[in-house]
Design a protein that fits this description.
about 30% helix; single chain; alpha+beta; 2 helices
Length: about 90
C-alpha cells in the first residue's frame, strides 16, 4: 500500500490537501502514478512533469515540490507538493 499526501500551496499557505492511497498489485512506480493522478483529479490540476531534480528529491526524502516549471499550463497556485506517508504509523 502506498499513501501520498498532496498539498496545493499559494502565497505560503496550504489551500487544499488530500491523501491518496493505492493498493494495486504492481510496482512502486505504478502505485505512485495512480496516487498522483488521483490527487491531480481531486485538485483539478494537470499532471506535472517529473524533472531530474524532482526524481532525486523524491528518492532522497520521499517528498518533492512541483512548481510552474513542471507544468505547461499556467497555474493559479505556487506549488504542488507530494509526500509519501508511512503506512505503518496508522
Amino acid at each position: 500500500m502506498l499513501k501520498i499526501w498532496g498539498k496545493i500551496i499559494k502565497n505560503g499557505k496550504i489551500i487544499r490537501d488530500e491523501v491518496a492511497i493505492s493498493e494495486v498489485q504492481g510496482s512502486y512506480q505504478e502505485n505512485l502514478k495512480i496516487c498522483i493522478t488521483e490527487l491531480c483529479n481531486v485538485f483539478d490540476i494537470p499532471k506535472p512533469y517529473w524533472l531530474p531534480s524532482n526524481l532525486d528529491e523524491y528518492n532522497r526524502r520521499g517528498k518533492t515540490i512541483f512548481n510552474q516549471h513542471n507544468f505547461v499550463e499556467e497555474l493559479d497556485f505556487d506549488r504542488f507538493v507530494i509526500e509519501e506517508l508511512d503506512a505503518e504509523r496508522d
